[in-house]
């Protein structure tokens, strides 16, 4: 059902930009709704139940939106998702929304694995280099893997940039064996 998440995410991305809503605030508010649903099985069951009238679900949603300070566009998105009995897809919708917003704002999510912990200056330099390669602003998640021996491996989506010593040794091994 990835298409369900994509449909809602694309539509809400348009709402975010058309209404000049702060994208990070909107995503944060949606994560807050998910957290409330995880804390309360009763809330989740009410919103999922086809036996409970929509106006009662909306009244509950409105009370939550008011107490949590949820913006009207986010409240409306959740209402539409509830009305179409898609509340179980909310987390997937949020993940897809984050991807859509990043794409629209020119961000790329990168996973960087290095042989050692990188300092802040090294992280900025690496993100700058990757940004030049991709033409996007880079947000990176960092991890350490000592088996790389040195250097780093950067993954953006399905593209891998291998600048590790282990990767170089493997390429040399392949060249010699062929």
Please tell me about this protein's structure.
The structure is a single chain. The model has no long low-confidence stretch (mean pLDDT about 90). The chain is built from eight helices and four strands. It has helices at about 1-20, 25-40, 40-50, 55-70, 70-85, 90-105, 120-135, 165-175, and strands at about 105-115, 135-145, 150-155, 160. The chain is an alpha+beta fold and about 180 residues long.
Short description:
By secondary structure, this protein is an alpha+beta fold. The protein is 63% helix and 14% strand.
Q: Which features characterize this protein?
A:
single chain, 63% helix, four-stranded mixed beta sheet, Peroxidase, domain 1, 178 residues, 2 domains, alpha+beta
**C-alpha geometry:** elongated
CATH topology of the largest domain: the name is: Peroxidase, domain 1
Q: Hey, roughly how much beta strand do the residues contain? A: 5-15%
Mean pLDDT: 92
Name the CATH architecture of the largest domain: Orthogonal Bundle
Question: Which regions are unreliable across 5 or more consecutive residues at pLDDT < 50?
Answer: none
Helix content: 55-70%
Figure out the total of helices: 8
Number of domains: 2
Largest beta sheet: what is the strand line-up? 2-1-3-4
Secondary-structure element pattern, one letter each: HHHHHHEHEEEH
Tell me the structural class. Answer: alpha+beta
Largest sheet: 4 strands, mixed
For the record, give the distance between the C-alpha atoms at the N and C termini, rounded to a whole number: 44 Å
- CATH top level label of the largest domain: Mainly Alpha
